[in-house]
Every structure is written in structure tokens, then in C-alpha cells.
Design a protein that fits this description.
mainly beta, 13-stranded parallel β-sheet, NAD, disulfide bond, single chain, Leu-rich_rpt, 40 strands
């Protein structure tokens, strides 16, 4: 290995260094180049600990035999497009512990043999779809210890051989439903130490080959079947050291091969017998306050019947406290007189929490202060919960270092002024299902660190700016399933850092100019499932940074083209489930330069004119047109960079009018799902492969003859016959892979 570690190199130049000037070291007698390149046969190059700052285009083109390149701790801030072109044999690229904030889309081009890519310990805040598109041989990608907060759809497209994806120690709170699409070989996914507020089952289920999933040290408090986790090959699931307080019996019903489940260090005081994972053999429960009264008898019986190995010393009846769970029999868990077990449980929990010195009755000490009597405060995770306690007012007296406060499923209709004193470190506040009708002025006063506010499933019909003042860092506001009929535009003026606004399933019927006047920092806007029939021109204009706009499941009769003006950063547009019927020419032209993902599925589309997608540039990566009423569709030659096209569920009529689409699809290396519905002779055939259906079309025979070369003298069989044999062979190979 050629070592240049710590030699204080300051630049990598793209100019070719003459062979006579190339050196093998950086000492006083070495040739004086900004980067003295070794001989062309060098296979391993160690440059870690230098000050390169930037990797320019084709920086290593004179080293075509490199297999290992180490650029750790080089203070690299920029990797130019094409920086590694020419390194077609490189197997390992280590860019860990640098200062990268972004990767240009073609920064990793030319690395077709790369097997391992290390990007841990950088400052990456986003991943752009297509970044890893040229890395078809990579098996391990390490993105741990970065600053990622969101994974977009198709984030890892192209990594068809990746087996281990490391995303731990980021700030991930949202995974797009298709974030993990295109990873057929993925077996291990590390997502521990992030900020996931709920188990992202829909996104995880895209990686159906997963065998090991690590989700520990995330703050979600519940997981159930509704989270949609469906991983038929999953063997090991780690949910340790989180904030789990409840687990539904069917949470893992669609993970039939699950063998090991790690639930250590959560807040589970009960666990139901799990339904579905019939191969479960190991269950880790240490560090949970499990209560072993008669209510735990079904769990113990199930564990014995399923032969699951486990171990946990328990709380519970005084005579059992501290016993190992696997040492108990169901008959040990007696059911005393009605109410006695609850009384004993309360006494035990009270005794287990030492009273704060000089504290008021009903306040127990945690590591940083008291805790209300009816709540649970966990010092290690800095989480406090009063979920489902029937409270009629917001309690007070939580530890000052609380970061997550869960008050869901209580009964207070109003959050009063200064409701959360002393909680200046609070990051996440859960107020779902509380019957809330109002937040009074100053309700959030003093919550300087608050980032996540959950107000879903309440009875709110409005919010004032005064109610939200006091939370200047609030980035995620969840207002789904309330009673809003107008956008709470005035409230947004108090939230200069608002990143994501969720207003799904309310009763909004119109977006007017000024509704988003306070949303200048807004990136994601979710308005699905409302009654929107109109989005006025200029209504979205103030949100110039908007990247994701969900308008699906509304009453829009046409694409709001004029309203899309002034959104230069829009990446994803969801319009599915609207009664669109048809599209106009240039319907998406205002966002043509930025749009990457367009959803028009289930929109009743019967026809799409040739110019409907005009203006959409090469940045478009996915187009969803499934489940419409399309009988024909023009070719879309201007969308040459598509990575996903879904045309399934349309009643295509396969005649000569569909020939341009057939030709266009034949040139795409994509599975599109388009099948013929009529005529009956073609029903069920794939539009892309149904060549025989279109053979009689005018011009098709001449086109075919023009492409057919004359047979060579002495050649065996005709070219047409040989091509047909090759095509049949390739088709059988594709069938074997499920394509």
C-alpha cells in the first residue's frame, strides 16, 4: 500500500502528472507536486489525515488499478461530479469523517466495481435520488453519524446488490414510503439512534428480503399491526432502549420467520402473547417494568407453549418481586380479590420511586426532579408519559430535563396558558386523542427546544399565532383528523422554522392567497384527504422552499397549474385520488425543472394528450399512472431518465394507436405493469412485449425490415430466427427472476 497519511497534502489536481515526475512518498526528497501520485500499478492508496478539502473531476485517472482508496479525515467538503471516473476496479472507497454536506448526483460515477462505500461521520443532511445509481456492485453502504432527517423515495435506487445499509446515529424522523425501494438484496438495515416517532412499516416493508432490522434508541411509544410491518424473511428485530409503552399482539403478524425480538430497556409493564411469528425462539425483555400479576398469565402460558427463551426479573406481587420470569409457572400468578392487584401494583410502584426531598405529596423523584403521581418518568431516556390516564387537565411537575412528553388519550379540551413550565428542553410533545378544542394564548410558552408537536385526532377548528408563540424551533406540526375548514395561516407566522405541516383528513375546501404567508421555511405540506376543489394562483407562492406537496384524495377537477408557479424546489407532487379525468397540455410546466416524483394514480384519467408532460425535464424519476381508465397513452420520449413507471390497472386497448407507446416502452429497461385489456385476443399480454399484436400496423413491417441485416453467406439460420431464439432465451431468464 502506498501511504501518504498525514503528510499535509492540500490539494488533488486533475492535471495529469508526467510519469517521470511521479513519486511514491511525500518526504523532502520527493518530487514537488500538490499530490505526488504513485506508479500506475498502485492498488491501495492511503491518504487519510490530509487537508484535501476538494476532490476535483477525474482526480485519480492516472491510477486505473486502484482497488482501495482511503480518504478519511481529509476535511473534504466537496466531491465534484466525476471525481472518481477511471477507477473502474476500485472495491473500497472510504470518505468517512470528512465535512461533506451533500453529494452531487454524478459524484460517484465510474465506480462500477465498488463493493464498500464509507460515508460515516460527515455532515450529510439529504440524499438525492440517483446519487448511488452507478453503484450496482456495492454490498455495504455506511451513512452512520450524519445529519439526515428524511429519506426521500428512491433514495438508494441502483444499489441492487447492497446487503447492509447503515443509517444509525442520524436525526431521521421520516422515511418516504418508497425510501427503500430498489434494494432487492438488502439483508441488514441499521436505523438505531434516530428520531423516528413511529415505526415506518410501509417504508421498511419495501425491503422484503431483510433478515436483520435494528431500530433501537428511537422515541416511538407504540407499535401495532396498523404500522404495516411486513417482512416475510425477517429473523432478528431490535427495538431496544426506546420509549415503547405498548405493543399490539399482531404488531409482527406479517413477520412469520421472526426468531429473535429484542425489547430491552423500554417502558413495557405488560406484553400480550404475540400472534404471527411462529418461529420466535428468543425474547429479550430486560429493563422493562413488567408487572407479573394474573394479567400476565396469558403471556407466560404463550411463552411456555411456543418454547420461547426469555429472562426478566419482575415487579408484581410482593412474594414474586425480583423472580425470573422464566422461573414462574402460570399458577404462580394468582388473581386475588377484585381490585387487590391494582392496589398492590400502585403501592409497589410508589415504593419503587423514592420521594423527592421536601417534595409535595404525589411527586416522586427522578434523576432530574419530581414526576406527577399518575405518570411515569424515565430518567435514562428522559421520557415522561401520562398516556390514557383519564386526566382532565394538563399535569405539572415533570423533570426539567424531559425531552419527550406523552399526554395522549386524556380528556382535557383546553391547553391553558403556560401549561408546560420548566420544560425548556422538551423536544417532542404528544397531545393526540385528547378532545382538544383550543390552545390558549401562550400555551407553549417556554418550549424553546420543541421540534415535534402532535395535535392529531382532536376537535380543533383553528389555531392562533399567540397559541404557538414560545416554540420558535418547532419544525413538525401534526394536525391530522381535526376540524379545520381553513388553513391556519395566521398561526404559521409564529413558526419561523416550520419544516413540515400535516393537515390530512380535515375539511379544507379551498387554498387562497395568504394562507401560507407564514410558511416561508416550509418544505413538506400534507393536505391529503380534505375537500379541496380549488387551489388559487398564488396560494402556495410564499412557500418557495416547498419540496413535497400532497394534494391527493381531494376534489380537484384539474391540475392547479397556475398555483404551482413560484415553486422552484418542488420534488414530489401527489395528486392521486382526485377526479381529474384529463390533463391539459403543459400541466406541470411550472415545476418541470425540479419535479422528480409525480403521482397521478387513481385519478379517473381517461386520456392524456401528447403535450401533458411537456416541460418536465430529465429530473423526473418516477411517474405513477396506475389504476386509471387509460385505453391509450402517447409515447413519452422526453422522460428518458425515469427509474419507475407504473401503468398497471389501466384498460389499454392494444391496437395500432398504441404502437408509439409500445415502441417507447420497448426501449426502457423498466417493468411498467401495462397490460392489454382489449381486444380479447391480446388480453393479459404485456404492452411492452406484445410485438405480435403490433406487427400488422402500418410502418411496423418496414421498420422491422430496415433493422434486419442480410444473412451472411454460410450463416446458420436467418437473422430473424437467431434473434427470436435469443429473445426467447432472454425472456425465459427474465421470467426466472420474476420480471
Amino acid at each position: 500500500m502506498k501511504r501518504m497519511r498525514g503528510r499535509r497534502l492540500f490539494q488533488v489536481r486533475e492535471e495529469q502528472v508526467p510519469a517521470s515526475a511521479r513519486g511514491t512518498g511525500c518526504g523532502p526528497g520527493a518530487p514537488q507536486h500538490p499530490l505526488p501520485l504513485p506508479a500506475q500499478l498502485t492498488q491501495r492508496l492511503d491518504l487519510q489525515g490530509n487537508m484535501l478539502k476538494e476532490i476535483p473531476p477525474a482526480a485519480f485517472r492516472d491510477l486505473p488499478h486502484l482497488t482501495h482508496l482511503d480518504l478519511r479525515r481529509c476535511q473534504v467538503e466537496l466531491v465534484a461530479e466525476g471525481a472518481f471516473r477511471g477507477l473502474g476496479r476500485l472495491l473500497l472507497l472510504n470518505l468517512a469523517s470528512n465535512r461533506l454536506r451533500a453529494l452531487p448526483q454524478e459524484a460517484l460515477d465510474g465506480l462500477g466495481s465498488l463493493q464498500r462505500l464509507e460515508l460515516a461521520g460527515n455532515l450529510l443532511e439529504e440524499l438525492r435520488p440517483g446519487t448511488f445509481g452507478a453503484l450496482g456492485a456495492v454490498t455495504t453502504l455506511n451513512l452512520a453519524h450524519n445529519a439526515l432527517v428524511y429519506l426521500p423515495a428512491m433514495a438508494f435506487q441502483g444499489l441492487v446488490r447492497a446487503r447492509w445499509l447503515q443509517l444509525s446515529h442520524n436525526a431521521l424522523s421520516v422515511l418516504a414510503p418508497e425510501a427503500l425501494a430498489g434494494l432487492p438484496a438488502l439483508r441488514r438495515l441499521s436505523l438505531h439512534h434516530n428520531e423516528l416517532q413511529a415505526l415506518p412499516g410501509a417504508a421498511l416493508s419495501q425491503a422484503r428480503g431483510l433478515a436483520r432490522l435494528e431500530l433501537g434508541h428511537n422515541p416511538f411509544t407504540y407499535t401495532g399491526e396498523e404500522d404495516g410491518l411486513a417482512l416475510p424473511g425477517l429473523r432478528e428485530l431490535r427495538l431496544d432502549h426506546g420509549a415503547l409503552q405498548a405493543l399490539d399482539a399482531r404488531a409482527f403478524a406479517r413477520c412469520p420467520r421472526l426468531h429473535t425480538l429484542d425489547l430491552r430497556g423500554n417502558q413495557l409493564d405488560a406484553l400480550p402473547p404475540l400472534q404471527g411469528p411462529g418461529q420466535l425462539r428468543r425474547l429479550r425483555l430486560q429493563g422493562n417494568p413488567l408487572w407479573c400479576g394474573c394479567r400476565a398469565r396469558p403471556l407466560l402460558e404463550w411463552l411456555a407453549r411456543a418454547r420461547v427463551r426469555f429472562g426478566r426479573r419482575v415487579l408484581g406481587q410482593r412474594r414474586l418481586r425480583g423472580e425470573a420470569l422464566d422461573a414462574l409457572r402460570p399458577s404462580d400468578l394468582r388473581c386475588p380479590r377484585p381490585g387487590a392487584e391494582e392496589e398492590e401494583e400502585a403501592e409497589e410502584l410508589k415504593a419503587a420511586r423514592p420521594r423527592a426531598p421536601g417534595g409535595a405529596p404525589g411527586e416522586e423523584a427522578g434523576a432530574a426532579g419530581p414526576c406527577p403521581r399518575t405518570c411515569v418518568c424515565v430518567p435514562e431516556s428522559r421520557h415522561s408519559s401520562c398516556e390514557g390516564r383519564g386526566l382532565q387537565a394538563v399535569p405539572r411537575g415533570f423533570p426539567n430535563d424531559t425531552q419527550l412528553l406523552d399526554l395522549r388519550r386524556n380528556r382535557f379540551p383546553v391547553v391553558p396558558q403556560a401549561a408546560f413550565p420548566g420544560l425548556g428542553r422538551l423536544v417532542s410533545l404528544h397531545l393526540q386523542h385528547c378532545g382538544l378544542t383550543e390552545l390558549e394564548a401562550g400555551a407553549l410558552a417556554g418550549l424553546d427546544s420543541l421540534i415535534y408537536l402532535y395535535l392529531s385526532d382532536n376537535r380543533l377548528s383553528g389555531l392562533s399565532a399567540a397559541a404557538l408563540e414560545g416554540a420558535p424551533r418547532l419544525g413538525y406540526l401534526y394536525l391530522e383528523r381535526n376540524r379545520f375548514v381553513r388553513m391556519p395561516g395566521a398561526a404559521l407566522l409564529a413558526l419561523p422554522s416550520l419544516f413540515s405541516l400535516h393537515l390530512q383528513d380535515n375539511a379544507l375546501d379551498h387554498l387562497a392567497p395568504g394562507d401560507l404567508a407564514g410558511g416561508r421555511a416550509l418544505r413538506w405540506l400534507y393536505l391529503s384527504g380534505n375537500r379541496l376543489a380549488r387551489v388559487s394562483p398564488g396560494a402556495l407562492g410564499p412557500a418557495r422552499e416547498l419540496e413535497k406537496l400532497h394534494l391527493d384524495r381531494n376534489q380537484l377537477g384539474e391540475v392547479p397549474t397556475e398555483a404551482l408557479e413560484g415553486l422552484p424546489a418542488l420534488l414530489e407532487l401527489q395528486l392521486s385520488g382526485n377526479p381529474l379525468g384529463a390533463l391539459r397540455d403543459g400541466a406541470f410546466r411550472p415545476v418541470g425543472r425540479s419535479l422528480q416524483h409525480l403521482f397521478l394514480n387513481s385519478s379517473g384519467l381517461e386520456q392524456i394528450p401528447p403535450g401533458a408532460f411537456s416541460g418536465l425535464g430529465p429530473r423526473l424519476r418516477s411517474l405513477h399512472l396506475q389504476k386509471n381508465q387509460l385505453q391509450t397513452l402517447p409515447a413519452l420520449p422526453g422522460l428518458g431518465e425515469l427509474e419507475l413507471v407504473d401503468l398497471s390497472g389501466n384498460p389499454f386497448h392494444c391496437d395500432c394507436q398504441l404502437l408509439p407507446l409500445h415502441r417507447w416502452l420497448a426501449g426502457l429497461n423498466l417493468r411498467v405493469g401495462a397490460t392489454c385489456a382489449t381486444p380479447p385476443s391480446a388480453r393479459g399480454q404485456r404492452v411492452k412485449a406484445a410485438a405480435a399484436v403490433f406487427e400488422a400496423c402500418p410502418g411496423q413491417a418496414a421498420r422491422k425490415a430496415k433493422r434486419t441485416p442480410a444473412p451472411r453467406p454460410g450463416a446458420r439460420g436467418t437473422p430473424t430466427k437467431r434473434r427470436r431464439q435469443r429473445a426467447n432465451k432472454e425472456y425465459k431468464g427474465l421470467e426466472g427472476h420474476g420480471l
